[in-house]
């Protein structure tokens, strides 16, 4: 398998409860996986662990059979080749869109950089916005820049933390579709966390339901959430349906 | 990337050491000169910082070719610094405006005994340390100042008399934190004994017109403002006020009379500013020359006059202003007791609640 | 699910790589530098901490019996009253400026920091000069109107007077830190409160105060420490505080043990306050990590409200800056020419040099330590940097002695090196400016660190994480992301330290090399001889340079897009 997470455990200091409890998962190349759960279920923590922003108490991550972390190895975040789109994007306010994207491309030559920036901007359909500053963009545009920035260095894996939480509903539906197209077009393996079943349903190849840091259910969207569009059950917080 | 961080640290260190070097190189010519010939400088730690002092140091350099390097500071802190620097100290001369501190410097073994015929000639014996560890350079008297309109000089006699009920709510004096008050009480411990001195302090506190605040000048102003009628203060502050640029201050000073207390008994309290040669002095000869110069007739006039103090050198006349206040009998006690009794004085102040 | 199969060679390679990795790890480089810096800042304080364990002697018993109680009481009153008033004034002004548009707002925005340019002891002398019997107010009443009012009404040499002085000249600490926080961080919170139908008064008490708590505590703890540490004002006003006790036992009783014991108690008190603040804060993180830094749109005030806002700002500015400056100018004119003026340029150069170097080093150190504190998890990493603030709580003279001792030790240690270099005397560093500057750094690190720390708090960690996930290491991230984003905090920290060093007295007096005068030593020299009018010239230049620094930096900041 392309990505293999084994037995991941983590608890925050000063707490007894495990935030992530024996979490294991494998992902094939180019697949989009959604981790679905209520807030506090540990889903964002998993992303931070994979990214290297927190240190797991136990467990391992291998990408293409290379160890990213286990009980002996711990690669620094910048050495992992993992991209991330933050909940509120974390676009560097003192840099233009171009510079934000260029930031992750320091290993490329100048010409290649230019080309790559152009490519990813085209991918997210923001060719004409290269010279804008983040605060001059709308929320949707900012999000697309964040995705472009994360994709640009060609990471093995992209992590998206509640990618739609800051967007209005109409935009959400539109961007959901776009995002799936972008990810699929770029053939990038990705994990995104969300609390919204609609997001998961529309975007993911696989869905993991997480409860108290543990996997509660796992499967294809149609299997897991039923064939019916989940928007009908959206009114009330959906109870988990077993596989 | 680690390099970048190291670079930052290196720059920080370089900046620090650069400013270290700057002064080091500045000193360099002097140091080499020191080796080549007899040293041509003297290092002075002084707690006196009048502008006229600097002019005198310049004059000294013109006369002798010896450069005076100065660190000005507060007496106690300078003493502490000399102590910490120990044998390596660069200080040659310690100059301060209170005999108590000179005593303390001696007591802690920071000074050395120096003899010079010229010094003996210029500084009267009672203004020298018993062991010639320090020499007085100027005199200041702590006197009673009164409101000319409400107080007749005949009503005044001694410091002790100010504790009479008659003066209830009329006496002004600054806080006990001040060294002049500490030395005053220390002198009473010598002349009257500890018990009586304590009674005096307690009695004076009972007669305070207000809680002590401000400096000596502020006591004078408080008389003019009618808050109290008499104040204990140093003469030279009145001299400064009479010569102030501010006409209002001159007006205040002119409304005040000056009274030298205890003329029939123990004499008016006198303190000195003075200097001693530091034990580890590297330029001892130059240091002695500096003391000789500062007590010489040439310097004494200016040295004392600038601050309306009395010269110690008998051959030098006080200024017209000081003469107009008249001559007076001084306390006849060895000045070193001021330092001896200083701690006792502070404890008494605390006990009687003199803020 | 696929098990990772590793052959032995691969494992060894990875392990080897890990050890190297560990040695060169950026986190560790930052940790090492930060720990070294903190150790340097702590070391002198250790002499004092050790004093708390020394056995008590007669002097200690005497002080405890007669004076300590009243010293502590007075200190607490001064701290409490000054703390409350500086928060009230600083916060209200910060909120007005951050949220409203009214006449002169853009001017007041930076002008309200100007009172910081006046050293409290000069402010104290100046206000006493204005209010006393020969001062302009009483003289005018007396001579102009023939009114002879009770002079006691004008007496400011008491505890309320000292609180008045401290408040006027120290409130900018609270104001500047809170204003920057409010104008950059609070937009969404305040707007949402508005949307919830809250009026301005409710917003102020229910939203502004709670969310600015970190900034308020940061600013007011500087004020409290400054008050605890001040000697000039209380000495002149005849108020006996804890610091008085330290000096009394040291210099008066010649008992340095008792004075160090007192200083150590003071330090204990400061640690207690810092801990209490930490405990109150608990696990709550106070970065509202919305990474969209959005300025708060201003509400335009009209009519009497605008008039009141402008009037309030101008009143504080007048009391804290304009009035004292006019008085200083008046005195300077009266005494002009009585003091040799040609040397002034040298004093200015000396002052600016030491202040500039110290501020630069402090900011660099603060950036390193601040970065360490947010990189490394755990309580120690959060608490240790807080403790460097202790340098700020100890009276300057006590720090001076600790620094002299340390430098003489250092010189002894380096003596062989000096001999090697052909330097003939044994004291090199301890007679150089390096000693003075080191003391400044120990003393004022807290000022710079506070500013930098709140800057780090404000930008949070998402930007840093984003950068690292784009393959950029910690150190590069620091220079390319953190430093540019911290620009505001760096500049304001620099100004605060610069001005503080410019005003500093006891350290400069004790630790300076030969023939080294600064503006503040010159001003103090005259003031301590009760020649306040002669002191006005140097004071005025201090105020002028500080004010200029404030203006220049604010203009610079305004040009930058926020």
TrEMBL record, chain A:
A GO MF label:
ATP binding
Where does the source fall among the domains of life?
Bacteria
Going by the UniProt record, its keywords in alphabetical order are:
ATP-binding, Cell membrane, Ion transport, Iron, Iron transport, Membrane, Nucleotide-binding, Transport
Q: What InterPro entries does this protein map onto?
A: AAA+_ATPase, ABC_SmlMolc_Importer, ABC_transporter-like_ATP-bd, ABC_transporter-like_CS, ABC_transpr_FbpC, P-loop_NTPase
Q: What is its EC number?
A: 7.6.2.9
Q: Do you know which CDD domains this protein is assigned to?
A: ABC_Carb_Solutes_like
Domain ABC transporter positions: 3-237
What is catalyzed by this enzyme? a quaternary ammonium(out) + ATP + H2O = a quaternary ammonium(in) + ADP + phosphate + H(+)
Q: Does the keyword Cell membrane apply?
A: yes
**A GO term from the CC aspect:** membrane
Q: Which positions are tagged coiled coil?
A: none
**PANTHER family from the UniProt entry:** SPERMIDINE/PUTRESCINE IMPORT ATP-BINDING PROTEIN POTA, SPERMIDINE_PUTRESCINE IMPORT ATP-BINDING PROTEIN POTA
- What subunit structure does UniProt give? The complex is composed of two ATP-binding proteins (OpuCA), two transmembrane proteins (OpuCB and OpuCD) and a solute-binding protein (OpuCC).
Protein name as it appears in the record: Carnitine transport ATP-binding protein OpuCA
Provenance organism: Bhargavaea beijingensis
TrEMBL record, chain B:
Q: Which UniProt keywords apply?
A: Ion transport, Iron, Iron transport, Metal-binding, Signal, Transport
One GO cellular-component annotation of the UniProt record comes to: outer membrane-bounded periplasmic space
What range does the record give for the signal peptide? Answer: 1-20
Where are the membrane-spanning stretches? none
Task: List the CDD domains.
Answer: PBP2_FutA1_ilke
Q: Name one Pfam family in it.
A: SBP_bac_8
Binding annotation for Fe cation: 49, 236-237
Under Gene3D superfamilies, the record lists: Periplasmic binding protein-like II
Task: Kindly give the InterPro entries that the UniProt entry links to this protein.
Answer: Ferric-bd (IPR026045), SBP (IPR006059)
**GO MF, one example:** metal ion binding
Q: Which GO terms describe its biological process?
A: iron ion transport
Family designation: Belongs to the bacterial solute-binding protein 1 family.
Know the name of this protein?
Answer: Extracellular solute-binding protein
Q: What organism is this sequence from?
A: Bhargavaea beijingensis
From TrEMBL, chain C:
Q: What is its main location?
A: membrane
Q: Name one GO cellular component term.
A: plasma membrane
The record ties this protein, via InterPro entries, to: MetI-like, MetI-like_sf
Its localization reads: Cell inner membrane; Cell membrane
In the bilayer, the protein is annotated as: Multi-pass membrane protein
Enumerate the Gene Ontology biological process terms.
Answer: transmembrane transport
Alphabetized, the UniProt keywords read:
Cell inner membrane, Cell membrane, Membrane, Transmembrane, Transmembrane helix, Transport
Q: Tell me which domain of life the UniProt entry assigns to the organism this sequence originates from.
A: Bacteria
Tell me which CDD domains the record gives.
TM_PBP2
Q: Does the keyword Cytoplasm apply?
A: no
Query: Can you tell me where the transmembrane regions are?
Result: 29-54, 74-98, 110-130, 163-182, 203-225, 258-276, 306-326, 346-369, 389-415, 427-449, 485-502, 538-557
Q: Which family does it belong to?
A: Belongs to the binding-protein-dependent transport system permease family.
Protein name per Swiss-Prot or TrEMBL = Iron(III) transport system permease protein
């Amino acid at each position: 398998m392309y990505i293999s997470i084994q037995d991941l455990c983590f608890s925050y200091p000063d707490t007894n409860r495990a935030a992530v409890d024996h979490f294991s998962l494998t992902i094939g190349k180019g697949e989009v996986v959604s981790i679905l759960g209520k807030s506090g279920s540990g889903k964002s923590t998993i992303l931070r662990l994979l990214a290297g922003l927190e240190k797991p108490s136990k467990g391992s991550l291998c990408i293409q059979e290379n160890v990213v972390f286990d009980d002996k190895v711990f690669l620094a975040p910048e050495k992992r080749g993992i991209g991330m789109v933050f909940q509120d994007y974390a676009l560097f306010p003192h840099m233009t869109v171009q510079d934000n994207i260029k930031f992750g491309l320091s290993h490329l030559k100048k010409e290649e950089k230019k080309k790559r920036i152009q490519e990813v901007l085209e991918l997210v359909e923001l060719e004409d916005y290269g010279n804008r500053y983040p605060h001059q963009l709308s929320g949707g545009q900012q999000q697309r820049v964040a995705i472009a920035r994360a994709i640009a260095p060609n990471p093995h894996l992209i992590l998206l933390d509640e990618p739609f939480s800051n967007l209005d509903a109409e935009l959400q539906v539109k961007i959901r579709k776009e995002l799936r197209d972008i990810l699929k077009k770029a053939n990038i393996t990705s994990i995104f966390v969300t609390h919204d079943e609609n997001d998961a349903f529309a975007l993911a190849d696989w869905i993991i339901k997480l409860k108290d840091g543990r996997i509660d259910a796992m499967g294809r969207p149609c299997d897991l959430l039923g064939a019916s569009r989940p928007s009908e059950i959206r009114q009330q917080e959906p109870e988990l349906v077993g596989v | 990337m680690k390099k970048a961080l190291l670079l930052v640290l290196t720059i920080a260190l370089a900046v620090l050491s650069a400013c270290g070097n700057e002064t080091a190189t500045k000193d360099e010519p002097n140091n080499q000169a020191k080796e080549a010939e007899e040293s041509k400088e003297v290092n002075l730690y002084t707690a006196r910082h009048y502008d006229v002092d600097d002019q005198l140091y310049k004059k000294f350099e013109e006369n002798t070719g010896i450069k005076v390097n100065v660190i000005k500071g507060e007496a106690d802190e300078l003493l502490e610094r000399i102590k910490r620097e120990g044998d390596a100290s660069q200080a040659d001369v310690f100059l301060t405006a209170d005999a108590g501190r000179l005593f303390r410097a001696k007591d802690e073994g920071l000074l050395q005994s120096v003899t010079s015929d010229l010094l003996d000639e210029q500084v009267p014996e009672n203004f020298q340390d018993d062991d010639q560890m320090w020499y007085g350079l100027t005199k200041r008297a702590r006197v009673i100042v009164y409101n000319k309109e409400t107080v007749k000089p005949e009503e005044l006699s001694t410091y002790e008399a100010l504790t009479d009920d008659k003066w209830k709510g009329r006496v002004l004096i600054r806080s006990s934190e001040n060294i002049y008050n500490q030395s005053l009480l220390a002198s009473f411990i010598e002349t009257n004994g500890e018990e009586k001195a304590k009674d005096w302090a307690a009695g004076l506190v009972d007669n305070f017109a207000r809680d002590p605040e401000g400096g000596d000048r502020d006591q004078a102003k408080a008389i003019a403002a009618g808050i109290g009628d008499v104040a204990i203060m140093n003469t030279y502050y009145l001299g400064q006020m009479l010569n102030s640029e501010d006409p209002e201050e001159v007006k205040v000073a002119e409304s005040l009379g000056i009274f030298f207390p205890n003329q029939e008994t123990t004499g008016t309290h006198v303190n000195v500013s003075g200097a001693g040669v530091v034990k580890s002095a590297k330029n001892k000869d130059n240091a002695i020359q500096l003391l000789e110069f500062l007590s010489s007739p040439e310097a004494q006039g200016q040295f004392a006059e600038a601050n309306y103090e009395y010269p110690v050198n008998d051959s030098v006349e006080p200024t017209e202003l000081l003469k107009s206040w008249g001559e007076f009998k001084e306390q006849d006690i060895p000045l070193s007791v001021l330092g001896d009794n200083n701690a006792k004085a502070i404890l008494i102040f605390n006990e009687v609640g003199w803020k | 699910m696929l098990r990772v199969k590793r052959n032995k060679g691969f494992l060894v390679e990875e392990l080897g790589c890990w050890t190297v990795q560990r040695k060169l790890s950026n986190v560790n480089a930052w940790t090492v530098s930060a720990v070294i810096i903190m150790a340097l800042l702590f070391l002198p304080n250790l002499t004092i901490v050790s004093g708390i364990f020394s056995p008590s002697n007669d002097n200690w018993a005497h002080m405890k019996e007669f004076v300590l109680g009243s010293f502590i009481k007075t200190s607490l009153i001064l701290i409490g009253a000054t703390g409350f008033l500086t928060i009230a004034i600083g916060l209200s002004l910060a909120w007005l400026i951050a949220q409203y548009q009214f006449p002169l707002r853009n001017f007041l925005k930076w002008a309200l920091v100007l009172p910081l340019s006046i050293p409290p002891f000069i402010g104290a002398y100046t206000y006493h000069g204005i209010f006393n019997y020969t001062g302009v107010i009483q003289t005018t009443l007396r001579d102009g109107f023939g009114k002879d009012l009770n002079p006691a009404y004008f007496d400011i040499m008491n505890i309320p007077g000292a609180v008045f002085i401290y408040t006027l000249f120290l409130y900018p600490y609270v104001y500047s830190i809170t204003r920057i926080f409010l104008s950059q961080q609070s937009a969404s919170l305040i707007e949402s409160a508005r949307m919830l139908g809250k009026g301005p008064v409710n917003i102020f008490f229910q939203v502004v105060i709670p969310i600015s708590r970190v900034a308020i505590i940061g600013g007011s703890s500087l004020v409290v420490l400054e008050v605890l540490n001040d000697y000039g004002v209380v000495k002149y006003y005849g108020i006996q505080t804890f610091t008085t006790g330290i000096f009394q036992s040291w210099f008066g009783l010649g008992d340095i043990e008792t004075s160090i014991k007192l200083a150590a108690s003071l330090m204990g008190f400061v640690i207690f306050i810092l801990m209490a603040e930490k405990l109150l804060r608990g696990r709550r993180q106070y970065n509202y990590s919305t990474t969209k830094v959005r300025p708060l749109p201003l509400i335009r005030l009209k009519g009497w409200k605008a008039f009141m806002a402008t009037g309030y700002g101008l009143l504080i500015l007048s009391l804290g800056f304009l009035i004292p400056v006019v008085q200083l100018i008046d005195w300077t004119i009266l005494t002009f020419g009585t003091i040799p003026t040609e040397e002034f340029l040298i004093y200015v150069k000396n002052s600016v040099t030491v202040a500039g170097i110290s501020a630069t080093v402090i900011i660099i150190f603060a950036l390193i330590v601040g970065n360490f504190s947010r990189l490394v998890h755990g309580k120690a990493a959060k608490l240790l940097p807080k403790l460097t603030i202790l340098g700020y709580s100890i009276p300057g003279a006590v720090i001076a002695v600790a620094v002299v001792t340390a430098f003489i030790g250092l010189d002894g240690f380096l003596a062989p090196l000096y001999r090697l270099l052909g330097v003939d005397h044994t004291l090199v560093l301890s007679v150089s400016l390096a000693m003075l500057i080191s003391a400044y750094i120990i003393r004022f690190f807290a000022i710079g660190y506070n500013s930098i720390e709140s800057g780090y708090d404000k930008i949070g960690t998402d930007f840093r994480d984003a950068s690292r996930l784009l393959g950029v290491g910690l150190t590069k991230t620091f220079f390319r992301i953190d430093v540019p984003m911290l620009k505001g905090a760096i500049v304001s920290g620099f100004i605060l330290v610069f001005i503080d060093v410019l005003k500093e007295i006891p350290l400069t007096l004790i630790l300076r090399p030969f023939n080294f005068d600064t503006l503040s030593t010159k001003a103090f020299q005259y003031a301590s001889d009760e020649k306040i009018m002669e002191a006005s010239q140097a004071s005025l230049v201090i105020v002028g340079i500080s004010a200029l620094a404030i203006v220049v930096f604010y203009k610079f900041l305004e040009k930058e897009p926020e």
